[in-house]
From TrEMBL:
The chain crosses the membrane at residues 12-32, 39-58, 672-691. This is Glutamine amidotransferase domain-containing protein. The keyword Membrane applies. The lineage of its organism: Bacteria, Pseudomonadati, Pseudomonadota, Alphaproteobacteria, Hyphomicrobiales. Keywords: Membrane, Transmembrane, Transmembrane helix. InterPro entries: Class_I_gatase-like.
């Protein structure tokens, strides 16, 4: 029973004071002067005041509240090492059994480290989970927290946690663990293609080893070198970036006997390759309406260094003036086409025809340049069908189609072929989805026969309009019309000339994004996304090998013509190998070199400061005397309820605080001056006063 006295005045306190104060003053004056009946008047005044104040005895029925205890269970990937998962499960079951004996504890079990968010999988954030467990609990009801973890906690506060209760940590693993790992010390995010990139790395061992260690260096899955590193020292590394776009640099060391895990024996760096300015040689055969279309496009690209020459003398003009006396600037044919031809990434002949400017032998050099990996584009006009066509020179070996001599002057809408709808150069061109396309007409097509390579656009009477072909290690493109400038000038609404011309040039220069057959994979959060670019109708599923060696199948579904996509949710952080047909790709899922694996040795140090600041403790679950360093069981401390002012930890026990908080269930009221009792006492007091006054 919880008895208490309460006052429930019948009138307001100001009115009560206004009535009783004068009466009390008169009564006190009477007592001072010892007037007859003053005592009875004082008793009557007290009875009247008590009746007006209305004192009430309250009997409260209360229910004691429970202290809230949080058990935070670390389920991060580092807990999968060795016997840690088994130790965690045994410790959790034992704690639940022991805590279940105490009715004064409300136990909340929270598992952390298996969140869908990638950053929460790569870092062990137990204190964030602890805060969430106590979010709806007042501080007076927090009994304490118990963490079951390997001690590698990445959000541990440096001082006292935000709650005033004991924090206890039970550490999995054992004190005999050893591990060796490798990490990048300096890894730039960008590098020039074909140029060496300076990096540094370090090999770290927990048992203070010394001596050299072999480090395998791989770039995009291919081993390029084996370096020797000294444990504990920062080592220099030079890697040549092979291609534009994403490159994966991987360092790997062999596992050591008895090592805790080999997960951190690899380090990954993602480097975006950037090409130096591409060098393009543009040779215009003669002035024409669209001569500056290619020039303006290439000059507007900051990544292109353009060398442009135009032959200004029309072929029909024969005045006997020597060629070398016609130009303001001498055309350095030998320097461009013999000495420095290999320096160019692309050569464009824009309505060019053979004349005495280039010796016949130089065309053979150009064909050889293409065969050895160069790029050539023929922007053909009527000259290509004439007697002075470059197809009648040794360059014919590099050309994908020979002219028929026919020039078709007929209006038409350039259209994509079936191949063109899937080819990355023409796929999805703005305006190509409708029939007729939402772009202007052209009025000239150059006739060719027996085209080689891929016809991706067609012109008048379904004749080939755009050819793309491979010759040896190089590539050749042929645009069989000189009417593209109509799109640039906005005729009939214009067309996507910038998009088309840029794609043609970059495909010829082997831009990876424009490859017909391409497999790429990318990690987004904990999702692995696979993209297959192909000219076939069905590339089949993709095969995936996880960092732990498991084989998975990812179904690829058609997203658009020539593009198939697939994705799979993953649970492992690391490097994934993806294959489809004869193509392979690498992708890293999760943050690179995640903190979860940077140091996997179980430790008591990170939680020692916050635990001791709250009066808690940190202890290992496995005894240090376990043979071979492997835990055969766990040793749990006893659970002891303690008051807020008492100690919360001992050698073999941990304390959790109980609370004094309670909740009110019911209240019983007993008025002291209520009913006939109060009326009788008041009448008795008033009657006594009247009787004494009457004497």
């Amino acid at each position: 029973m919880n008895w208490s006295l309460s006052f429930e005045p019948l009138v307001s306190w100001p009115l009560l004071v206004a009535v009783l104060a004068p009466l009390l003053l008169l009564t006190l004056v009477g007592l001072w002067f010892r007037q007859r009946g003053s005592v009875f008047r004082f008793a009557a005044l007290l009875a009247l005041g008590a009746a007006l104040i209305n004192p009430v005895f309250l009997d409260e029925e209360r229910e004691a509240l429970k202290s809230v205890v949080a058990v935070i269970v670390d389920r991060s990937q580092s807990q999968d090492i060795g016997e840690r998962t088994k130790q965690t499960d045994e410790a959790l079951a034992g704690l639940q059994q022991r805590l279940g004996r105490f009715k004064q504890f409300d136990v909340r079990v929270v598992e952390a480290g298996k969140s869908e968010a990638a950053d929460e999988r790569t870092e062990t954030k137990l204190f964030g989970a602890l805060e969430g467990a106590f979010r709806d609990v007042p501080p007076s009801r927090i009994g304490g927290a118990i963490m079951i973890t390997d001690g590698e906690v990445h959000d541990a506060p440096a001082g006292t946690p935000d709650f005033n209760a004991p924090l206890h940590a039970l550490i999995t693993g054992n004190d005999r663990e050893k591990d060796r790992r490798i990490r990048f010390e300096n890894a730039p995010r960008f590098g020039l293609v074909g140029k060496p990139l300076d990096m540094t790395y370090r090999v770290i061992a927990t048992d203070n080893q010394a001596g050299p260690v072999n480090v395998r260096v791989s770039v995009n899955g291919e081993q390029v070198a084996v370096e020797q590193a000294t444990i504990g020292q920062a080592m220099p590394l030079q890697v040549t970036i092979p291609r534009a776009g994403r490159n994966i640099i991987e360092l790997a060391i062999d596992p050591e006997p008895g090592e805790l895990t080999d997960t951190n024996n690899r380090a990954i760096a993602l480097v975006d390759g950037i090409r130096e300015n591409l060098r393009v040689l543009l040779v215009s055969g003669e002035p024409h309406a669209g001569e500056r279309t290619w020039r303006n496009l290439l000059k507007s690209d900051a990544s292109v260094d353009l060398v442009h020459f135009t032959i200004l003398r029309p072929p029909e003009k024969q005045d006997g003036t020597p060629i070398n006396e016609l130009s303001l600037i001498a055309f350095p044919t030998r320097e461009l086409f013999v000495e420095k031809i290999k320096d160019f990434d692309l050569i464009i002949f824009d309505r060019y025809q053979h004349r005495d400017v280039l010796p016949i032998l130089y065309y053979d050099y150009i064909a050889e340049y293409v065969e050895k990996g160069g790029a050539l584009l023929i922007a053909a006009g009527p000259e290509y069908a004439g007697e002075s066509s470059i197809a009648r020179t040794p360059l014919m070996a590099a050309l994908p189609a020979m002219p028929t001599g026919e020039v078709v002057d007929k209006a038409f809408y350039p259209r994509l072929t079936d191949l063109g709808q899937r080819h990355p150069v023409t796929r999805g061109l703005d305006g190509s989805a409708t029939d007729p396309p939402r772009w202007s007409r052209w009025f000239r097509t150059i006739g060719v026969e027996n085209p080689e390579g891929q016809v991706v656009m067609k012109g008048a009477d379904n004749r080939p309009l755009l050819l793309l072909d491979r010759k040896g290690e190089g590539r050749v493109g042929m645009l069989l019309s000189d009417q593209g400038w109509l799109w640039a000038r906005g005729f009939e609404g214009g067309g996507p000339h910038v998009q088309l011309y840029r794609r043609i040039a970059h495909w010829l220069m082997k831009e990876p994004e424009l490859e017909e057959e391409r497999l790429t994979a990318e990690g987004r959060g904990m999702m692995l996304e696979v993209r297959r670019q192909t000219m076939s109708d069905d590339p089949g599923p993709a095969q995936v090998i996880t960092p732990s060696g498991k084989a998975l199948i990812v179904k690829l579904e058609k997203s658009e013509p020539g593009v198939f996509l697939g994705s799979i949710e993953t649970s492992e952080i690391g490097l994934y190998q993806v294959g489809n047909g004869n193509l392979t790709a690498l992708a890293h899922v999760g943050p690179v070199n995640a903190p979860e694996f940077s140091d996997v040795i179980s430790t008591e140090n990170r939680l020692k400061a916050p635990a001791e600041a709250t009066g808690g403790s940190v202890r290992r679950l496995a005894p240090s005397s376990t043979l071979g360093g492997l835990a055969s069981g766990v040793t749990l401390p006893s659970i002891v309820p303690v008051r807020s002012s008492g100690a919360a930890a001992g050698n073999d026990w941990i304390g959790l605080r109980t609370t004094d908080d309670s909740v009110l269930k019911a209240v019983s009221r007993v008025p002291l001056f209520g009913g006939f009792l109060g009326l009788g006492l008041l009448l008795l007091a008033m009657g006594s006063m009247w009787y004494r006054e009457g004497r």
